[in-house]
Each structure stands twice: as C-alpha cells, then as structure tokens.
Automatic annotation (TrEMBL):
Domain of life per record: Bacteria
Entry-linked Pfam families: FAD_binding_3
Keyword Transcription regulation (UniProt): no
MF GO annotations: FAD binding
Protein name: Pyridine nucleotide-disulfide oxidoreductase
Keywords of this entry: Signal
InterPro entries per the UniProt record, alphabetical: FAD-bd (IPR002938), FAD/NAD-bd_sf (IPR036188)
PANTHER family: THIAMINE THIAZOLE SYNTHASE
Lineage: Bacteria, Bacillati, Actinomycetota, Actinomycetes, Kitasatosporales
Organism: Streptomyces dysideae
FAD-binding domain boundaries: 5-341
Signal sequence region: 1-25
Amino acid sequence: MSRRAVVIGAGLAGMLAAAALSTVADEVIVLDRDELPDGPEHRKGLPQGRHAHLLMAGGLAAMEDLVPGVSMRKHLLAAGAHEISLSSGMVALTPEGWLRRWRHEGPQMLTCSRALLDWAVRVAVLANTGAKIRKAQVLELTGSAHRVEGVRISTAAGETDLEADFVIDASGRGSRVVTWLAALGISDVREKTVDAGLVNATRIYRTPEGAESFPLTMMQADPYQSRPGRSGMVLPIEGNRWMVSLAGTRGGQPPSDTEGFLQYIRDLPHPILGRLISGAEPLTDVHVSRSTSNHRRYLEKTRQWPERFVVLGDALAIFNPAYGQGMTVAAMGARNLGRELERHGLTTPGLARRVQRGTARSVDAAWTLAVSQDIWFPETRGGSPNIADRLLTSYTRRMIRTATSSYSAASAIWDVTSMTTGPTRLLRPSTVLATLSGPPLPAAAGPPLTPEEREIVRKLDRTAG
C-alpha cells in the first residue's frame, strides 16, 4: 500500500525533513503558503532572512547525511557560499578579549545569505528525492490525540483534507502547533520565552577590490556590564559581497537609517568594522528585524503525544540569532528523524514520541548556550540568573578568557559552538585544567591581523578624514 508523508513548511527544516522521509515514504508532499522564488531571493515568510546566518559544522554534517546522492558542502560552495575556519579564518572580539588565530585547522562553518542557502537546499532535495512542493495553507491537523491522520488545507480551489501516514510541522516560528494540538485534546504544552529585546540591522556592501580574502570579523556583545549589548559583524557572502550585520539588545538597538547605522558601527568597542565599511560601496538600504527572542515549546514533555506527528525546526524552538544555532539545530533534528525512520520504519508505534524526545537533546544544548547569555542583559524578559547560572557563567567566562591564547580551551569552545560535540566537552579534564591555569599569554592589544590585512584596513579607512 502506498504511504504518503506531508511536511508543513518548505524552509530549511521542512526540506531536510522531506529528504529524510523520502527514504521510507512513497510520496512526500511539502506544503507552503508562500510562492517560492525560482532563485536565491528573499521571501516574506522568513523574518530573519535578510540577516547574518552561519551554518556550523554540526549542521553541515547533518545535511551531508540527509540528502542522497549529493555532497551538500560542495553543492553550497558551488552556489557561492564561503567556508571559514573558526581557528584561522575569523577575527573575533569576545567579552574577554580578542581571540588569537591559529595555524591548526579547526571546525569549518559556511557563510552565505539565507536566501541562497534555502534555495540551494530546496534544489538539492527536489533533484535527489521524490519530494514535491504544493502551495497551500494548513488550517489544522486531522485525526485525534492518539494519532494524526493528515491535515486540512486551504488552496485556490477551496478547503480539503489531505490524508497522510506521517506529518511533520516545520512551519517555522509562526507555527500554530499549540492550537492544533489543543483541538485534538492535547492542551498541556509548556512554553517559555526569554527575550533580550535584540534588534538586528543589516546592510549589504560590495566587497572592496583586494579585500576578497579578508577574514570574517565580529565583535560580540558583552552581557556582563549591566548595559545593553551591542555587536557587529562583517562576513563574506555570495556574489562578491559583504553582509554587515549589527545587533543591540533592549536600550541599545541599532537604527534603521543609513547615517545612524554608520554611527552605531563607529561606536562599537573597536573601530575595525567602521574602518572596513567606510571604504566599501553599499548595495542596499538597512533592513531591520525584531523577531529575535528565544522561544521554546516543550513538546517532548506532554503527557500524551499523537502517533505519526513530529515538530522540527523553529516550530519547536527558536533562538536569539546572534548565536548562529537555529539552522544547525533544524538540520540535526531532521537527521534524528531520518535515523529513527531508518531503524523503525514510518508507522512503528511510539516512533513520533521517540523522535520528539531525541530532537529535544540538540535543542537543549542550543537553548542553554543562548539563554545563559541573554539572561545577563539588562531588561531581559522571561529570565534572570540564579545561583547555578552564576556558577556556570563564572566558569565559562574564565574559559573564554583562557581561550584568547590557549589552543586547548579555544578548541573546546569551537567544538561546542559548532555543535559537533555536546556541552560536556567543556568539562573534559584537559579543558578544565587549561581553564583553571588561565591564559598562557598576555591579552592581545588589538585584532590579530596579518600585515597584508592591516594594509587592507588602512586603504579602506575613510574615517580618519
């Protein structure tokens, strides 16, 4: 008998879920209410789409496991993405000082526009699986609290029921899953929001001639000074362009006008970002987004969970985008789905509950990293530091201070932020010993640039005049 799977949402999480389902379902239908672009273009259903996105090594590894017949790394690089080493290809000012750059290779991350990444993943999945996309709005789930049997949809032809042997909700931060579950009789979904009031402001520039290999450069917000956090980043994206993204928490938000944007970047703790873009040609206006809170639905903790229904991606949890975890968590959730389907098949009793609980583990790690920082910003809503948070923060701050000049400590942080290992990596004896010993070298006085990179900054700098 033919088996059909339905995925709600054609974004990153939805397309990767479709790839996982395609190995066990005869028909995979992806539903999306938006008209999807034919190329790497922004679409309105993605409020953070115009801002900086980092695909960490853990997320890329998950993608490599999901899409049959294609190397997603090679596919994304061919589409224009940049590959950046966390150990040598990045200049970063942390709250504890400048991180040194090392000759040893560390985890890699990919940078590109979100529009390019979503389009490239969609193309790869559609070309290498039997998944199909259909324009429709999902109104509700059909079935019962015991088992979901499909979805009710609205199309240009009217409303109809679409039966399915398995349903995935990957409809993003606007998901109505709590309402849908309540209609089935499941009303004990616990939710939590931690909101630092972060605002993102982003503008695209043409990469200046001669600066094509300049490293990704960022200044992280400092949550520990009892004042609003301010951060900035210049990262390479496709099309020989720089994405310049600023962010500020409640009380320190970046403005949307061009002059205010430039002044904000000049007022950051170090002038390097302002110097870089002062000699670069802007290609767009400033785009601002305020959809940045951490929000989690603890679906794995409900007393009852319906068979054949799973929630993935932003529909399950969203994170402050400053930490670059959302896409990786979505990919890891889809990989978890794929592995469970491979072991147990599409309709095994208890499968959906097992997938939901397994996916929660990668959400836990990302949530802890994001929230443990955001609760320190003034006027954060939904959380404040307790004794455990203070102990954890004391240790992690000491570790980051050590990592400014210790390869051992730095590599532990890279592994965790890349989500190639879990947070217990920070408690290995070698990491704890390095942390307790402290930084082996004096703090760097400025950004760790090569002589060639310093010359690029000097040539681009228009601020002195």
